[in-house]
């Protein structure tokens, strides 16, 4: 990690208060697989950094600091989401920097990367600079921005990647759309090799996706809906994995949905390509069976697929073929979602349910270890050469305090996000982040939790 790159993400926020707070987090169960921490402890925070991890009851409150009674809570290194749609500029009726980062903080995230498919799209260094400036005052958690790969996201000419990088873009993505033209992708990868950052890939071949509204298979056939075959994704991953290798460039495959995609990533990695990959909570937890309800809350791109695909994704998480978890938080307004399935927009919100959905559906049944989920929910930072949060002496105090016993109905007490298009609405989930600390400052405190806070 270069110090300069850490700067890019850490500078762009002030909304949670000035960083550098003093805290005593008393009686938490500290849990950080990266630091081999798994025990009751007091965490002392001075000037935004972890000063000591003391025996429970032995931690001293820094003068003027706040004491948080964290008995019964787990203290995790706060999460990092490499894939968020903040909808700013231009689509603030869905989300903005303030509401989106508040949703992130409510989900235990202390860093996010915003996608560039806004209105206008982020293809101009001046827009990157303006967004970074706004994030300094509006963002509740550190926020970084990617710029587009191509001008206007039209897929034809490259954006000014060097200038965008200089303006502070941490990477490049036309997410929402694929870069269909292989020649354009090749040149983008050549530039990536020169200017750094990474290229985030929404992998889809429009010629194969057609007007598909869900995953192609038995369920789409039964419903009579046009389907998107898995090869729409996997063939593009195979192409871009080969291009990455050829150009010695760095790229990241977003939101894998299918077994065939996992296999394509594995082949590229095995060949030595600098390719990383990401999974969303919804693809890890749900299948196309949900679409039988014809509820557009189950419509997203890439679509939900079969149980066999889901099992392959879980196995890829375990094996390390997949590097990180990202939510693809994609807010849409009711008039874009509460309409017939075929015409509804694609995308679901995800920041506020990510951990709870994975904990409830994968950790509690014993499918995946808690440590793996916590580790992969932080690993997205590494795509941008940002060090993942740690609970260790001298680390920046980016901490999520989570109540693993919390039992809640998703959506029942509202959302921090401006949008409500969650695919988990109405489900009962176990576990919930209650306090998110960024650089020693409380960036988010769940309302009903205030009674438990001392000091
Ligand atoms: Zn996408
Ligand atoms: Zn996306």
Task: Provide the structure class.
Answer: alpha/beta
**Biggest sheet: strands, sense, closure?**
8 strands, mixed
Bound molecules: zinc ion
How helical, in percent, are the residues?
A: 25-40%
What is the average of the pLDDT values? Answer: 94
Q: How does the overall form come out from the CA principal axes?
A: globular
> How many distinct beta strands?
18
Q: CA-to-CA gap between the ends?
A: 37 Å
The radius of gyration computed from the alpha-carbon positions, rounded to a whole number of angstroms, is 21 Å
Q: List the total number of helices.
A: 14
Which range does the strand content fall in?
15-25%
Low-confidence stretches: 1-11, 449-455
Short description:
The chain is α/β, with parallel strands linked by helices. Helix content is 29%, strand content 21%. The chain is globular.
């Amino acid at each position: 990690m270069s110090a300069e790159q850490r700067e890019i993400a850490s500078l762009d926020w002030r909304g949670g208060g000035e960083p550098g707070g003093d805290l005593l987090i008393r009686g938490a169960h500290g849990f950080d697989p990266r630091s081999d921490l798994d025990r009751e402890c007091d965490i002392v925070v001075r000037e935004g950094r972890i000063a000591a991890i003391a025996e429970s009851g032995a931690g001293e409150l820094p003068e003027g600091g706040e004491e948080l009674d964290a008995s019964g809570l787990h203290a995790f290194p706060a999460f990092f989401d490499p894939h968020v749609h903040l909808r700013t500029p231009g689509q603030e009726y869905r989300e903005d920097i303030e509401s989106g980062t508040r949703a992130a903080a409510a989900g235990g995230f202390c860093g996010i990367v915003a996608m560039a498919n806004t209105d206008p799209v982020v293809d101009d260094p001046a827009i990157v600079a303006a967004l970074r400036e706004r994030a300094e005052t509006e963002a509740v958690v550190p926020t970084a921005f990617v710029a587009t790969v191509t001008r206007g996201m039209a897929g034809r000419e490259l954006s000014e990647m060097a200038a965008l990088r200089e303006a502070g873009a941490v990477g490049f993505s036309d997410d929402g759309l694929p870069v269909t033209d292989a020649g354009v992708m090749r040149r983008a990868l050549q530039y990536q090799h020169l200017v750094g950052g990474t290229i985030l890939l929404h992998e889809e071949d429009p010629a194969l996706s057609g007007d598909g509204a869900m995953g192609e298979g038995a369920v789409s056939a039964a419903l009579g809906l046009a389907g998107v075959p898995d090869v729409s994704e996997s063939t593009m991953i195979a192409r871009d994995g080969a291009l990455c290798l050829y150009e010695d460039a760095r790229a990241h495959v977003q939101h894998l949905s299918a077994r065939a995609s996992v296999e394509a990533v594995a082949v590229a990695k095995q060949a030595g390509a600098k390719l990383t990959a990401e999974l969303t909570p919804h693809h890890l937890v749900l299948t196309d069976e949900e679409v039988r309800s014809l509820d557009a809350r189950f419509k997203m791109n890439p679509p939900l697929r079969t149980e066999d695909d889901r099992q392959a994704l879980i196995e890829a998480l375990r094996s390390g073929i997949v590097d990180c978890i990202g939510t693809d938080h994609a807010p849409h307004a009711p008039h874009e979602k509460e309409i017939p399935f075929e015409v509804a927009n694609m995308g679901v919100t995800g920041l506020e349910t990510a951990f709870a959905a994975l904990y409830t559906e994968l950790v509690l049944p014993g499918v995946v270890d808690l440590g793996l989920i916590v580790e992969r929910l932080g690993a997205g930072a590494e795509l941008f050469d940002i060090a993942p949060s740690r609970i260790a002496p001298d680390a920046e105090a980016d901490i999520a305090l989570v109540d693993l016993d919390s039992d809640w109905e998703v959506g029942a007490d509202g959302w921090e996000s401006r949008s409500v298009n969650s695919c988990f609405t109405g489900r009962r989930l176990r576990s919930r982040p209650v306090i998110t600390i960024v650089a020693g400052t409380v960036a988010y405190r769940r309302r009903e939790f205030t009674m438990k806070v001392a000091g």
